Every structure is written in structure tokens, then in C-alpha cells.
Amino acid sequence: MTATTSPDFARIRAFDLGLRSRVAQRAPTASGFALRFPHAAFWDLNFLYVERPATPVDALVAEADAAMSGLAHRMLVIDEPPAPELLAAELARRGWAVERHVAMAAAAAPPPPPHPLPAAVEVAPSELVVPRRIGGREFGFDEATITAVEAADAAVGALAAERGFVSRAADGSIAAWARLYTDGVLGQIEDVQTLLVHRRQGHGEAVVRAAMAASRAAGHELTFLWADADDFPRRLYHRLGFVVVGQRWRIRRVAPS
After folding, report:
1. Other Cβ atoms within 10 Å of 213 Cβ, number
2. What is the pTM of this model?
3. Is residue 43 part of a domain?
4. How many CB atoms within 10 Å of residue 98?
């Protein structure tokens, strides 16, 4: 990443944090702000957002402990710039897990697929509830986490004009899905997932393409998604015309007993 934030990433970050701050309770802290959501098992709405990562490590850990008191985890979220490599390395030595996520923006309409894809259609978001529960169990989520995710989804979806897209298996069941959020200007493709038995059949690509097309048709100025920096879906998104415009670090651990 460059030393300055790209204009696209600045817009994505404002959209993302603005939406989260409307769903969760936001409180200022010494290094940034903390978000707390009633369902503590949902990590993505219970974290310390660090705007000043130069804060001494011990002070930052103490701040996270105070801000996330009563939760079973601690999580720091840091957007580049500045890059928090030294902080991440020190916390990794202390047993924290370090993840890097990238914000990817659609630079253009995707090229035609190299082979025929399954059909993808728009559905009411309520149709995603059952397959997403199945997907959560495939990821190893317990029932408390699945309940927390559903509560967060409902809150976010209500604020972000959620739309759902699915690709179906031959028996009519939902094989893959994606969701599209918007504020009327930006479109975020989120929660792209294919059930295990239906993977490597083009269902995931089909729903991403459908969400991209819907975002373009709605006139969104920017369509984006988040991806794990080191996971294989990033290659699919790159092939569909997405480019990396920013990077986010998530540094987390189980709370001390």
C-alpha cells in the first residue's frame, strides 16, 4: 500500500465504519473508538478500532481489555495507513492471531466467463436464513454464534437496503449466495458463500456476477467487497475485475480468564 489512503479506500472505510457504528454502540477511546453489539459472540461488531497504532503495546492491550470487558475475546481493527507490522508482530509473539483483509473495488465490468455458469437470481433476503445457518455450521460455528450472526445481519440489512442473490443446485436448493448492501452511492458485496457439496461448480462466481450487475444497474459509483488477503477467493475477485485499494488488519485473541 502507498503512504496515503486511496480515495476509493477512504470512501469504503467511511461506508463500512459508518454502517457498523449505526448498528453497534460506539464509544471513544484513547487510541480510537470501541464498538459493542448486544450479541457478544459476533466479533465483527465487537472490537477496538485503532486510529493511532503508535500507542504503546501494553497500553493498547489494557485499552482493549477495558473497552471489551465482559466479552470472550479481544479484537483490534487497524486500517492502513499506517501499516501496523511492528504492532502485529509483537502481539503475535504474545499469542494474538493476525489476519489481513483487503478492500477490493470493481474497476470495470467483469469479462465474459470462460465457461457457462449456473444461473443466479435475486431473492428476498429472508430466503438466505436457512442456507446461511447450514453454512455457519459448515464453518464450525456454534448455535450462539449463529444466533449472533443472524441478529447482526438483520440489523445491518435493515440499514443497508440489503438484497440477496442465489444460485441453485439441480434439486432447487440454494447452493451459493451473496448479499448486496448500499447507501445509495456505494455498493458492498458481502457474505459470498457456497455450501461445501456444491463448490467448484461455478455457483460462487455466478452470485458475485449477479451482485455486481445489480450494483451497476442501480447506478452505484463504487462497488466493493472485502477479502482475506491470503485466501483463494481473492483470485476469483481479481479475475472479475476487482483491484485492491486498501488493507485492514484484525488482531485478536481469546480474553484472559
Report:
1. 16
2. 0.93
3. yes
4. 16
| 2 in a structural domain | no
85-93 helix and 57-67 helix, angle to the nearest 10 degrees: 70
Q: Report the C-alpha gap between 18 and 219 in whole angstroms.
A: 21
SS3 content of the chain, % helix, strand, coil (to 5): 35, 30, 30
Task: Select from 15, 19, 16, 145 the least CA-distant residue to 77.
Answer: 16
pLDDT digits (tens, 9 = 90+) for 217-251: 999 999 999 999 988 889 999 999 999 999 999 99
User: Do 61 and 158 fall within a single domain?
Assistant: no
> Could you list the residue range(s) of the whole structural domain that residue 14 is in?
7-102+249-254
Q: What is the CATH number of the domain that holds 202?
A: 3.40.630.30
pLDDT tens track for 155-166: 999 999 999 999
